[in-house]
Specification:
Length: 155
């Protein structure tokens, strides 16, 4: 009879089993969040190394870029697949409010059809490949007509 009590004491109750399951789920979510943050950080580092590279329409690196070529190249090197065009990237990412934007999130320009994208660099700045004759650079966001998107939950 003493052996039966010892076995019963080692068997978790339904409440304990549920708590353990919830703890495992939370640990998985936290680990996934850390992996996504690491990928976004890596994409930002990859993009930063492209500063000074020339703009070329339709180019997606490594020696020249257009805006969406820079973002797709940088995120691809970090293990995140993004579509090739700014408008397709906008449809792919999770939309966020401007007040929630973080370094590494994407900034889109245009109305219903997005024509330009850059990587948010903090303090109202983006890293982007702006236009023909220019080079990849960091500059202030020049208009209020922009939208934000993140790959934080899609990576």
């Amino acid at each position: 009879m003493a052996a039966a009590k010892t076995t019963a004491a080692k068997t978790p109750t339904a409440k304990q089993a549920k708590q353990a399951k919830q703890a495992r789920k939370k640990a998985k979510r936290v680990a996934a969040k850390k992996r996504r943050a690491a990928r976004i950080s890596k994409a930002s580092r990859v993009a930063a190394r492209q500063k000074g590279d020339p703009y070329r329409y339709g180019a997606s690196g490594p020696g020249a870029f257009d805006c969406s070529g820079l973002t797709s190249y940088s995120f691809r090197r970090a293990g995140v697949k993004l579509p090739r065009t700014a408008n397709s990237q906008y449809r792919h990412v999770r939309k966020i409010k401007k007040k929630n934007i973080r370094k590494g999130d994407l900034v889109f320009f245009g109305g219903s059809r997005k024509y330009h994208v850059g990587i948010y660099w903090g303090k109202g700045r983006i890293l982007h490949a702006p236009y023909s004759g220019s080079r990849v650079k960091v500059e202030r966001i020049w208009t209020k007509g922009w939208s934000a998107g993140t790959v934080r939950l899609r990576a």
